[in-house]
Every structure is written in C-alpha cells, then in structure tokens.
Amino acid sequence: MNVHYHSYDAVIVGAGGAGLRAALETAGKVRTAVITKLYPTRSHTGAAQGGMCAALSNVEEDYWEWHAFDTVKGGDYLGDQDAIDIMCREAIDAVIDLEHFGLPFSRTPEGRIDQRRFGGHTRNHGEAPVRRACYAADRTGHMILQTLYQQCVAADVNFFNEFQVFDVLFDGEGASRRAAGVVAYELATGDLHVFASKGVLFATGGYGRIFQITSNAHTLTGDGPGVLFHRGIPLEDIEFFQFHPTGIYGIGILLTEGARGEGGILRNGLGERFMERVAPTVKDLAPRDMVARAIHAEIKEGRGAGPDKDYVYLDLTHLPPEQIDAKLPDISGFVRTYLGLEPKTDPIPIQPTAHYAMGGIPTNVHGEVVIDGNNTVLPGLYAAGECACVSVHGANRLGTNSLLDINVFGRRGGRAMVEYVQGVDHPDLPRSVVDPTRERIDMMMNSTGSEKVGAIRGELQVAMMRDASVVRTGESLQEALRVIHELRDRYEKVTIDDKGSVFNYDLTEALELGSLLDIAEVLVLGADARKESRGAHWRDDFPTRDDANWMKHTLAYRDESGAITLDYKPVVQGRYEPMERKY
Amino acid sequence: MTTTVQPAEEIALIKEVDVHLTIKRFNPETDVRPHWREYDLKLKSSDTVLNALIAVKSTIDGTLSFRRSCAHGVCGSDAMMINGENRLGCVNLISTIGTDLVIEPVRGLPVIKDLVVDMEPFFAQYRSVLPYLIANDDPGYKERYQSPEERARFDDTTKCILCGACSTSCPVYWANGTYIGPAAIVNAHRFIFDSRDQAKTERLDILNQKSGVWRCRTSFNCTEACPRGIKVTEAIEEVKRAILYDRS
Fold first, then answer.
1. Does the pLDDT of residue B247 top 80, yes or no?
2. CA nearest A317: which of A341, A285, A338, A346?
C-alpha cells in the first residue's frame, strides 16, 4: 500500500454545504485541502428542498428574535440559547451572502427574495405561521450546494475528490493534545494519504443510514463522528434523531415540508385532517417531531390508509396545478417516478422517514470541538453542519434550520480555523501515524469470515427502525441493544469479496458499517438512559418532559477497550423560559 | 372540527419479478479488456436499477463497482448506460424499464472500473466556462433584485446536477476529444442568462472557440438523456444565438 504525505494549514473533511462554506473562508487565506469521499456536488445538502429561514421581513413582519424563540421551543428547550441567538441573527447575513454568491432564489413580484411558511416558524412567539423560509422552488439545497461549489471553483479551492478519511491525527498527549491532520484512503488507487495539518474541520454530514426508512443518501454513514469517537472525542445528544413526517411510503424519499407550507394537508385513511386535533393553531405546520408522532398514532390506532393501514396521505390535490408546477416541481417528479401517482389529482402515501441527526460532535459557537462537560476546546479541531452539535437544534430541529446551520457555522468554523492556524506551528508527525489505518484495511482485506456487510447493515437498519425510531420504550431499546451487540460480534467476522485497490467500495462500505454500529449503540444507550420524552426522543414509558432531571445534554465517551460511558452537561439557557410545547 | 375528503385509490400493486442483468465489467488490475457478466435475481417491481445493482453487490458479487449516493436523482452519481440509453440508475424502476437490463458505463469518458468512469475531464470542461456568478458591483448589505421573469429566464439550466448523462450521450463528444460538451454549455447558459451576471461576453467568447457550441450537431441526444428534463439542445441553441446576435 503506497503512502503519500501532504502538508496543509487547514484540512476540511466533507464537501457538502458546511464544508464548502468553511472552505470559502479558508481558501486564499491559508493553504487548504478539502477532502471528500464523493465529488462535492454529490453531497446530500443537494437533496434539501424547502428553504432556509431568515427573518428578512421581505413579505411580512418578522424579527430574528421570533426565529430564535421558535427554534428554542421547536427544540423542546434542549438547544443552547446563546448559539441559537447567533444562528438566527446571522441567518439574515448568511442568506444575503448566498444571494451575492449567485444563488437563484425564487423572487417576489418586486424582485426580492421570496419567503414561505415552514413548520414551527411563527409570528410573534407562536401566534400564527410566518413566511420566513427563503427558497428556490423545492430545490433550495441543490441551489445552495451548486452555488457554494461554484464559488469554490472561482476561489480555486484544492479538492481531493473520492478520498475517504479513516483516521484523525493528534500532536501531543492528554490535555495538551491538538489536531494534526487526517489519514485518507484514495478510492481510485487504494493508496493512503497522510494530510498533516494545523487545523482539521469535520463536515461529514449525518448518519441516517442506521435506519431502514430514511431520506438520507447511501453515503451518510457517520464517518466523521465515527472517526472522532474512536479517538476519544465524545458525541453529544445522539439519541435525538429527527423523523421527517413526509417520506415517500416504503422508500423514505423526502417530500418537503414546503408542500405543507404551500397549503398541503395531511389526511388519514378516513380522509380526516388529523393535525387539526393535534395542533389546532398551526395544524399541518407543527414541528416535525409532533407531526411524525401524530402519524404514528393514526397508524397505530387503525386510521392508516392502504391494505395494511400503514401510511397516511399528503394531499396536494386542492392546490392550483400551476402552484404545484412552480413551487413543488421536484417532489411532484419523485411521486410520479416512485409511486406512479399524480400529485395534482392523487393524495400521496407517506410515512415518517429518518431524516436528521440533531446530535453529533460537540462544538462551541466557533465550530471548535469541545471534549468534556466543561466545554474544554481541543485546539485545531473543528466541526460544522449535521455532523456537529452546537447545539442549535436541541431535541428537534425546525425545518430549514439545517441549511441555515451549515451556512452560519460553516462560515464561523472556517473563520475560526483560519485565525487559529495562522498562530500555530506545523505539527510533527512520525511515519507511523498511518499504521492504524493500514492495519484496519489489511485486516478487512484479509478477513476470511462468513458474514456479509449488506446483511449486517440491513438487520441493523430494521432493528433501529422497529425499536429506536419515532416511539421508544425501555423494552424496545433493550431489544435494539441486544441486536446491536449480536451484530457487533458478527461484524468481527465480516468478509469482503473485493480484494483489489481500485474503487473498492466493498472495503469502504465494510469500514463505514463500523461507524454505523458505533453510532447506533450510542443512540440506543443515550435513549435508554434518558427517562423522559423530549422533542424527537419519545418514550412511551416516560411520556412527559422532565426539566428537573433531564434538561441536559448527553455526552457519550468511548474508552480504548470500546466501552461506552455516558455523561451530561447543562443546557445554555437564555431569555426563553421552558414552557409547555403547544402549537 | 375535522374536515374530511374522499380517500385516494390504492398505490399500484408491487409484484415480485425475476430480473436478468447483463453488466459490462472491467477490473484494471486483472482484465485486459471489458467483458460481460450476467446475473439473475428476484426483486420488487418497484425497485430501481440502482437497487438491482446494490442487490448484485451485496448478495452475489461484492467486487462490482458503481457510484451512488442520494438514490433519488438529485446527486448525479449514477449516470450509466441502461439498455443503450444514458440514464440514472436510481430514477428508473424495474416496472417501467423492464426486467432484462443491459448495463454499461457511460461513453466518452475513460472507464476506471466497471461502471466507474473518470469524471475529471468532465469537470475540467465545466470549470472552463467560468461557472460562477461574476458581478463586480457592490450590492451592499442587501440582496440584488431580480424580477420573477428575469429569474425564470435561466431556471431550466439551474437544475443541472452534473451527472454527465448529456455529454456522454453526445456523438460529437465521443468522437471529438476537445468538444466542451453539453453539460459545460448548460452551466455557462445558467450564468449567461442570469440578469445579475456581468461576464456574458467572456463566456460567449469561450463557447465561440473551436471546442465550443459550434461543435454541436443538434442530435438532441443530450436532451433525451437529461434526467432533470433540461432542454439541453435548446440551451445550446440559445447560446449560439447569443454569440451571433447579442455579443457586445
């Protein structure tokens, strides 16, 4: 196995929205390498549809403080209010930045950026839905990804495409540890590359592939959190995983909340608009966790649709056809392609789909990774976007706030990294830093076991969906844990067919599966320990929020032996006192 | 009060089907030239061609290599030739495309392994058209204004996902190593007709070169291949007309 050596000031791992946005801050200022296991434009930011919220007040009165309130409440009071304030305040600037970068937003008749309604976003602290989401038809994420990539091309950003990072490097020991680079595997050759670097920013996205029904790409396997977890960095709030209410039935492909923002309605098998009962004020535009649970309840109580009564409908049939064509063209195409239905005349079968990780690598508001309950910074290490947990989304992310998060904290992380790397020396790395990765790969290549990656991954996804998704109990979580432990044992005996060195996805999928198993276990342990219901974490055996005992972030640590322990840290409070969450 | 409407009809029945795949394989470490391999498997009629490839990889032969990511037609990873036409594997269902599938890598780009081709020449062509907004005025702290009509002018070409299906379906692109290809022209079009952009002339100059739009022979293969439904040939024609009539 050939090993190549590179030296940079800054390395960014992942080239979705957060990674590209960070790269725009570092490019031209410090020597930067952006490493992605895909091509940048394949990243899953491109699949985001509905919009990016910012209180621009282009179409109606709005203030960033209202946005912050909605985000705090939407997150069921687990979000850190200092970070939420920053995100909602800087949202306005972040949208304007994107417009200046060339993003083709949908426009108002006056030529300003148009805005539409989105779940959980309200006027004056919950009075009524507000038009806050800036959008480009139903392909806002695509436009953001393309626009940021275009700007990276203009800035001549140095990309290493189809390089997959399998290890993070540190200089020093214990408390004096600082980031020193990464080890990446080049898909085209099978060579290893050591990137020595003063700063490392992880922006690897989510890990929805731990679940069977998901809106996430095949590639969303928690690579960044997985790598860092193995190097003793804790993971925060992993038990909070968002299920988007409207995934295409049976497949999980996302149908934007913007469809309901445009007036779409959820109906059960009897044709009833059930959200009127659940959230009388905002109805179908309640936050995602509430809508997903409401759908779950309709199905469980026998009011689902279809032969097995296991889905409900997203009904757009009352919308003017030209509005569907103009505002929701892509999702209409998905419905035609995958279900053979016409959204203008047919209600669309949907079910909740695993969508977004609120938890991740703990960071502060500068994107710096923090490694304990005292928020101690690990110098030189950064994270941004879905793989990170600032925490701005708390226990449940509001729609559009992910596109906002990647832009605000991608930019912040990039800037902070530039400032840091300009003040420190290059790390010294021995040649042996590559050994752990080489050994892992060699072991997988030479394995002779009988277990297959696809089978283990499939069983994990089924178990997580059944036992650790929209609704959980202590019993179901214990069952999930049992399955994960069994699959872990089988993973030790996993073998791959491809022994070659050119585009060996058999190998990379096998290594990704290790991260999926790790993260699934952290999720289940955190969920089992958390004896309350908050946001996306719902326990049928503890169906209320317990602020006295549980208004705190989970931190999961892995020790050298692989044992996982849980710790907690307080939520940063602010001007919004916790209150009952009604819509 | 809960409002009620008539429930919808059931979604189409999903059947189990026998699928026969013929895949053009090539491993640069062991093969001198590409060769065909056949696979039989049971799938659901609602499965996509990508699902079929994943099934082959996970249950029959893990050495099969192909790119994939989003699996619903927005990331552009899995352009391939299916029964002679360029398509994305993930947006074509067995129920519509059939159970006898011949799958090859796209043409016009070097094959690295199996369905994986070298995308670098494609992205180099993309980069050559200045595919980013160039606007030197200072808009201040506010957005630039753009009317819905101005925005609509280039809407079609903003949909491009850089999958390469168009360029690699073009006979001129196959035959002529210097033709910039439809995808690069689409991405130039996206800025040439954006009212905010100020580098129209530079881009038209680039596309007026020998490698540019005049290589296009209007075969419409690109338009047929585009999984996003972009009117690619029309975009190329609009650029040609802009070069002839609008260049300042």
1. no
2. A346
* A347 and A314 Cβ atoms separated by less than 8 Å: yes
B3 touches chain A (CB under 8 A): yes
Q: Which of A112, A212, A337 is the mutation pick for testing B, counting most B CBs within 10 A?
A: A337
Give the distance from residue A526's alpha carbon to the nearest chain B alpha carbon, in angstroms.
Answer: 28
Task: Look at residue B11 in the predicted model and tell me its pLDDT.
Answer: 58
**CA separation for the pair A26, A155 (Å, rounded):** 10
Dist. CA A274–CA B152, nearest whole Å:
37
Instruction: Enumerate the residues of chain A whose CB falls inside 8 A of the CB of residue B75.
Output: 38, 41-44, 46-47, 217
Q: Which residues of B touch A507 (CB under 8 A)?
A: none
Residue type for B76, please? G
User: What local confidence, expressed as pLDDT, does residue A175 receive?
Assistant: 85
CA atoms of B94 and A374, how far apart (whole Å): 54
ipTM of the complex: 0.96
Half-sphere exposure of A399 (CA within 13 A, CB side): 39
B74 contact residues in A (CB cutoff 8 A): 46-47, 139, 142, 330
CB burial of B23-38 (b: ≥16 within 10 Å; e: otherwise) equals bbbbbeeeeeeeeeee
* In contact, A470 and A292? CB cutoff 8 Å: yes
| Higher pLDDT, residue A389 or B12 | A389
Options A21, A178, A267, A288, the catalytic residue: A288
A429 vs A76: CA distance, rounded Å: 44
Residue given tokens 């029959």 in the structure block: B60
* Helices and strands of chain B, counted as H and E runs: 10, 7
Write down how long chain A is: 583
**Running DSSP on this structure, what letter comes out for residue A376?**
-
Task: Specify the 3-state DSSP secondary structure of A291.
Answer: helix
d(CA A37, CA A223): 10
Whole-number Å distance between alpha carbons of A562 and A514: 12
Tokens of A329: 């063209």
Residue whose token pair is 């779409």 = A264
Please state, in angstroms and rounded to a whole number, the distance separating the CA atoms of residues A395 and A359. 8
- At residue B234, what are phi and psi to the nearest 5 degrees? -65, -40
Alpha carbon distance A515, A210 (integer Å): 9
**Alpha carbon distance B216, B234 (integer Å):** 11
Task: Name the residue of chain B whose CA is nearest to A220's CA.
Answer: B69
Q: In degrees rounded to 5, what are phi and psi of residue B23?
A: -115, 135
Crossing angle between the packed helical segments A435-445 and A505-529, to the nearest 10 degrees: 110
- The pair phi, psi for residue B11, each rounded to 5°, is -75, 160
CA distances from B236 to A345, B172, B247 (A): 35, 14, 15
Q: Based on the number of CB atoms within 10 Å of its own CB, is B131 exposed (0-12), middle (13-18) or buried (19 or more)?
A: buried
Q: How many Cβ atoms from other residues are within 10 Å of residue B243's Cβ?
A: 18
Cβ neighbours of residue B3 closer than 8 Å, sequence gap 6 or more: A272, A273, A276
Confidence (pTM): 0.97
User: CA separation (Å) from A521 to A52, A177, A240, A258, A560?
Assistant: 32, 27, 13, 33, 16
Q: What pLDDT was estimated at residue B177?
A: 82
How far apart, in whole angstroms, are the C-alpha atoms of residue A117 and residue A132? 6
Beta carbons within 8 Å of A54's beta carbon, 6+ residues apart: A64, A67, A91, A92, A94, A95, A132, A134, A404
**Mean pLDDT within A489-493:** 97
Residues A487 and A490: their CA atoms lie apart, in Å, by 5
Element (H, E) at A514: helix A505-529
Please confirm whether the linkage preceding A391 is cis (ω < 30° from 0): yes
